[in-house]
Write a structure and sequence with these properties.
Length: 145
């Protein structure tokens, strides 16, 4: 897997193709327009050969020395081939170069593959935001370099 910076549009196309997110490219674009201006976003895509396999979007959410990984996903046909690992390694390298000292991420109880990755990679759980349906509860994690 190769990871490169990509355009916002390329990241949005991948986002819209991840079934779990059930998001249209237009709606994803709207979310980006609401959230990203002025926050130094970075758009990354993972490639298996020439084929796009996954994406990540990170930005400076908090006024501290962290980078927030907002969205990431891998197309079903490319999972378990190291795409997320490659994306997150690249995000971490990018964050270090930008002078950040940690990555933050927020995920849901139901995203077990993501949680497995984050626990295996040494992320700490900071807090849990409870939702009526426990599977929807949000989990905030961070990794300090
Ligand atoms: C979570 C997701 C991005 C993982 O992508 P991936 O490219 O398959 O992940 P990788 O191949 O890099 O796997 C890295 C590690 O994650 C964990 N992991 C990934 N998929 C897993 C699964 N199905 N079961 C258990 N652990 C899993 C493992 O620790 C794995 O390491 P290993 O293969 O050495 O055991 C992908 O499943 C996905 O897009 N899911 C839907 C969207 C989503 O949940 N996005 C995250 C929202 S915050």
């Amino acid at each position: 897997m190769q990871v490169r910076e990509c355009s916002e549009q390329d990241a949005l196309s991948l986002w819209a193709a991840i079934p779990e997110f059930a998001e249209s490219a237009d709606s994803a674009k709207q979310k980006c327009a609401e959230r990203l201006p002025g926050r130094k976003p970075v758009f990354l895509a993972a490639f298996d050969g020439n084929a796009p396999a996954g994406f990540a979007i990170a930005y400076e959410r908090d006024n501290d020395n962290s980078l927030y990984v907002w969205m990431t996903g891998v197309l079903p046909g490319y999972r378990r081939k190291g795409a997320l690992t490659a994306l997150m390694n690249h995000v971490e390298e990018y964050a270090r170069k930008q002078g950040h000292a940690k990555l933050k991420i927020r995920t849901r109880n139901e995203r077990r593959e993501m949680l497995s990755f984050l626990v295996a990679e040494g992320y700490d759980v900071l807090s849990v935001e409870a939702r009526a349906n426990t599977k929807d509860s949000r989990i905030n994690l961070e990794k300090t370099f």
